[in-house]
C-alpha cells in the first residue's frame, strides 16, 4: 500500500513537471531568449566582447539626462502618490459613508486606462487652449509627474487600504487607553504596522512610473526623455542597437530592484494579513475627526482624476468651439495613418483576445503548479523559484520585450518580424504575471483540510484537483481574464515596436494622431482615446464584479 502510494505520488510529480514544461518553454522562447540576446548585444559586437556600447551611450549627456529624469520623475511620483494615497486609503477603507463604493470605483479607473490615453487626457487639459492652459504646464515635467500620479494613485489606496481595513483595532485602542493622542497612535502604532503595505505600494508605483512609456512619449514633446523613450529613439531613429541594448540593461537593473523590493514587502504584508482577525471596523465618517483625509481625497477625486477624464470626454465632443460628434464621425469614416478606426479596433480586440487566451491558459498552469504544497524544504524552494521566474516579466519593460523580439525573432526557425502573431505573444508575456498574481491567492486560500478530506475519502491527486481545486480556481478566472484583456488592449510599449504601419492597434493610432498637427487629427485622437478608455474601463468593471475576496490587491 505504501509502495503504491509512493508510486502514485511520484507519478503525480512527474505529471506536474511535464505540465510546467509548457509555460516554461513559452517563457524561455518569448522572454528569456530575447532578454538574453539583448543583454549579449550590449556586451558583444558580433566579433568580440567589449564595453564599447556602454561607453558610447553613457558618455553622452543625453543619456544621463534620460536616466536622471527617469529616476527623478519616478521618485517624485512615488512621494506624491504616498502623500495623497495614504489619506485616501484611510477614508475609503477605515470609514463608512454613503457613496464609498462609488468613490472606490472612481479612483480605480485611472489604473486600467492605457498610458497613451492618460497622456492624451493630460495633454488636452494642459495645452494652450485647454481648460488649464493658463497655468503653462503643457509639456513640462509637472505635467508628466501629474499624469504618473493620476495613473498610480489607486495602487497606494488599494494596497495600503486593504491592510489598514484588517488591522486589529485593539492595538490603537490600547494606545489610546494608555493616554496616547490620536496622532501619536498613528505615528507609533498604525504606521509601523502598515509599513509592509506602504513599502510594497511605493515600490510598485516607482516601477510603474519608471516605465510610463506612453505618458512620456505623449507629454514629453521630445524635450523630456526617459530610458524607455531613449531606447525607442536609438532603435527607430538612429538604428543604434548596441546603445539601445545598453540602456535596456540599465532599465532592467532599475525595475528589477523595484520588483524585488515589492516582492519582499508583499510577502511581509501577506504574512501580516494572515495574522490579523477578519474584522470590519469601518467607523462612520466624522467631519471633525476625518476632515483632512476627506478634503485630500475630494481634491484628488475632483481635480486629479475627474478633471482630466471629464475634459477628455468633453473635448472629444467639440469641434471649433461647438458641441458636435464630428470627431467620432470622422474617426469612423476616415482612413488615417494607413488604417481606419474599424480596422484598428478590430486589430486591437483580436490581438487582445488572443493574448488573453494565451496568458490565462499559461497562467492557470503556473498557478496550479506554484500552489502545490510539498512537504520538503527543497520542494517548497523550487516552487518559490518557479513562481519568481514567471513574475520576471513584471520587472522588464514592455519596450525591452518588443526590442528584444526585433533582434531575435528575425530569422529562421522563428522569423516572425512581419507576422501579426508576434503582437499577442508580446502582450501575453506582459499580462502573464498579472494572471498568476490574481489566481495564486485563490488557490492558496483553499483550506488544507478540504484537500486532506478528499484524500482520506480515497480521491487521488488528480481527482482532488478536478473536484476541489479547479472549482475554486474558477472564482478568480473572471478577474484574471479582465486584467489580461485590459492590459493587452492598452499595451503600447512592445506594440509600438512590433505593429505594422498598415495594421496598427488603437493605442498606436492614438499616438500617431496626437503627434500630427491640425484640429481634425487632434479631435480624432481625443475620440479614439475615449473609445479605448471606455473599452478598458468596461472590461475591468465587469471583471471587478467577479473578484473573489482572496484577491485584495493587484
TrEMBL record:
The keyword Cell inner membrane applies. It is a multi-pass membrane protein. SUPFAM superfamilies: MetI-like. Keywords: Cell inner membrane, Cell membrane, Membrane, Transmembrane, Transmembrane helix, Transport. Its main location: membrane. Pfam families: BPD_transp_1. GO terms for biological process: transmembrane transport. Belongs to the binding-protein-dependent transport system permease family. This is Iron ABC transporter permease.
Amino acid at each position: 500500500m505504501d509502495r503504491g502510494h509512493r508510486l502514485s505520488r511520484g507519478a503525480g510529480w512527474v505529471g506536474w513537471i511535464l505540465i510546467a514544461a509548457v509555460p516554461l518553454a513559452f517563457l524561455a522562447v518569448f522572454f528569456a531568449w530575447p532578454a538574453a540576446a539583448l543583454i549579449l548585444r550590449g556586451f558583444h559586437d558580433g566579433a568580440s566582447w567589449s564595453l564599447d556600447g556602454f561607453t558610447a551611450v553613457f558618455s553622452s549627456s543625453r543619456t544621463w539626462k534620460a536616466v536622471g529624469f527617469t529616476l527623478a520623475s519616478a521618485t517624485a511620483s512615488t512621494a506624491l502618490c504616498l502623500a495623497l494615497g495614504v489619506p485616501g486609503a484611510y477614508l475609503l477603507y477605515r470609514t463608512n459613508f454613503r457613496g464609498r463604493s462609488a468613490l472606490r470605483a472612481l479612483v480605480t479607473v485611472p489604473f486600467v486606462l492605457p498610458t497613451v490615453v492618460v497622456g492624451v487626457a493630460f495633454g488636452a487639459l494642459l495645452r494652450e487652449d485647454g481648460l488649464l492652459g493658463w497655468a503653462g504646464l503643457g509639456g513640462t515635467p509637472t505635467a508628466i509627474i501629474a499624469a504618473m500620479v493620476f495613473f498610480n494613485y489607486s495602487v497606494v489606496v488599494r494596497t495600503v487600504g486593504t491592510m489598514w481595513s484588517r488591522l486589529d483595532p485593539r492595538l490603537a485602542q490600547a494606545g489610546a487607553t494608555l493616554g496616547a493622542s490620536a496622532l501619536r497612535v498613528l505615528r507609533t502604532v498604525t504606521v509601523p504596522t502598515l509599513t509592509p503595505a506602504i513599502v510594497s505600494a511605493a515600490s510598485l508605483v516607482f516601477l510603474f512610473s519608471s516605465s510610463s512609456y506612453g505618458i512620456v512619449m505623449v507629454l514629453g514633446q521630445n524635450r523630456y526623455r526617459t530610458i524607455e523613450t531613449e531606447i525607442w529613439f536609438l532603435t527607430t531613429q538612429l538604428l543604434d542597437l548596441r546603445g539601445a541594448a545598453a540602456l535596456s540593461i540599465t532599465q532592467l537593473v532599475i525595475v528589477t530592484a523595484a520588483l524585488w523590493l515589492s516582492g519582499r514587502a508583499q510577502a511581509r504584508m501577506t504574512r501580516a494579513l494572515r495574522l490579523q482577525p477578519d474584522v470590519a471596523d469601518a467607523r462612520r465618517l466624522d467631519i471633525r475627526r476625518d476632515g483632512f483625509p476627506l478634503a485630500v481625497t475630494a481634491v484628488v477625486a475632483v481635480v486629479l482624476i475627474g478633471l482630466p477624464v471629464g475634459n477628455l470626454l468633453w473635448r472629444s465632443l467639440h469641434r471649433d468651439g461647438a458641441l458636435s460628434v464630428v470627431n467620432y464621425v470622422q474617426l469612423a469614416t476616415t482612413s488615417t495613418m494607413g488604417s481606419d478606426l474599424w480596422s484598428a479596433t478590430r486589430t486591437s480586440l483580436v490581438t487582445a483576445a488572443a493574448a488573453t487566451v494565451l496568458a490565462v491558459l499559461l497562467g492557470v498552469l503556473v498557478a496550479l503548479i506554484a500552489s502545490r504544497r510539498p512537504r520538503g524544504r527543497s520542494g517548497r524552494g523550487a516552487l518559490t523559484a518557479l513562481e519568481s521566474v514567471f513574475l520576471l516579466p513584471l520587472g522588464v519593460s514592455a519596450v525591452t520585450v518588443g526590442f528584444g523580439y526585433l533582434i531575435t525573432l528575425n530569422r529562421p526557425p522563428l522569423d516572425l518580424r512581419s507576422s501579426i502573431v508576434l503582437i499577442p505573444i508580446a502582450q501575453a508575456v506582459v499580462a502573464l504575471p498579472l494572471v498568476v498574481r490574481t489566481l495564486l491567492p485563490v488557490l492558496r486560500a483553499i483550506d488544507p483540510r478540504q484537500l486532506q478530506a478528499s484524500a482520506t475519502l480515497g480521491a487521488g491527486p488528480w481527482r482532488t484537483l478536478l473536484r476541489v481545486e479547479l472549482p475554486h480556481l474558477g472564482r478568480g478566472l473572471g478577474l484574471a481574464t479582465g486584467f489580461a484583456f485590459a492590459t493587452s488592449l492598452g499595451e503600447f510599449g512592445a506594440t509600438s515596436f512590433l505593429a505594422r504601419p498598415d495594421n496598427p492597434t488603437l493605442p498606436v493610432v492614438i499616438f500617431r494622431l496626437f503627434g500630427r498637427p491640425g484640429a481634425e487629427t487632434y479631435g480624432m485622437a481625443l475620440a479614439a482615446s475615449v473609445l479605448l478608455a471606455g473599452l478598458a474601463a468596461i472590461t475591468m468593471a465587469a471583471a471587478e464584479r467577479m473578484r473573489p475576496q482572496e484577491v485584495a490587491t493587484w
